Prior knowledge:
The chain is elongated and about 60 Å long. The protein contains 5 helices and no strands. By secondary structure, the protein is mainly alpha-helical. The protein is 79% helix and 0% strand. Helix 2 (19-46) packs across helix 4 and helix 4 (62-90) packs antiparallel against helix 5.
Amino acid sequence: MGNGTSIGRVRGKGSAHNGAHHWLLFRYTSVGSLLLTVWFGASLVMMPSLNYVAVREWLLSPVAATAMALFIVVNIWHAQLGLRVVIEDYVHEEGNKFASLLALNLICFAAAAFGLFCVIRLALGGA
């Protein structure tokens, strides 16, 4: 379909002209979240004990630490994408929408930074 028809002008764009990109990101992060959640659940089940020392020993492995960092980033990114849509759909006043999106982004960034800091600290053998 070309630009001459009504469907050709809007295909893949949506009202904000970037809807397909957001939709794909949301789908990719949901698949990543599913795979990493299955990995995380299986890792917890296979652990001999769930005390601090056992978890720290587990995170000393580079594979486990990297996968845990990805688990944190992907899940927070997925949550941010979903909450962004809710805010854009239901907050109608532009000032409130801007403030809500700013707060959402700051909270998600802080949560990801804190989670990654904790994984790095444990992976490097910190107490």
